[in-house]
Amino acid sequence: MILPDYDFMSDSTEETSTRFVTFIGPSLKRFDLAITTTNRFYGKKLVTDLQAGKTAIIGPDDLEEEGYLEYTFNLTEEEAQELSQFLYLVVGTVNFTD
């Protein structure tokens, strides 16, 4: 099989840790999340909404950005607030790595 000429910018493998969390907030919105910790992305987490199939790289600074969670995960303001409260517990302080 002949592969096309790919111009790889990066290709690496690393051990990661993934936390799977399901919870229902006061708005009765169910969140099914996969939160992956990796050495990439300057200590931020990969947060995947398993129902919508959407993933974002999230750190504390992203949670401070107005409308970020609403836009990224297609949430109402109330739902985004619930998710934000949970994610503050998860993402914590960003630790820079090499």
Keywords for this entry:
98 residues; alpha+beta; 4-stranded antiparallel sheet; 27% helix; elongated
Could you give the topology of this structure?
Layout: E1 17-24, E2 30-37, E3 45-49, E4 54-58, H1 60-64, H2 68-73, H3 77-91
Antiparallel strand pairs: 1-2, 2-3, 3-4
Number of H- or I-type helical stretches: 3
**In oligomeric terms, what are we looking at?**
single chain
N-end to C-end Cα span: 37 Å
Instruction: Give the class from helix and strand content and strand pairing.
Output: alpha+beta
Number of beta-strand segments? 4
- Major beta-sheet overview: 4 strands, antiparallel
Instruction: Report the average pLDDT across residues.
Output: 90
Spatial order of the strands in the main sheet? 1-2-3-4
Shape: elongated
Organism: Paenibacillus cisolokensis
Protein name: Cytosolic protein
Pfam families: SAV0927-like
InterPro entries: SAV0927-like
Describe, in plain words, how this protein is organized in 3D:
The chain has 98 residues and is an alpha+beta fold. The protein is built from three helices and four strands. The chain has helices at residues 60-64, 68-73, 77-91, and strands spanning 17-24, 30-37, 45-49, 54-58. A four-stranded antiparallel β-sheet has the order 1-2-3-4. The protein is elongated, with a radius of gyration of 16 Å. The mean pLDDT is 90. This is Cytosolic protein. InterPro entries: SAV0927-like (IPR021415).
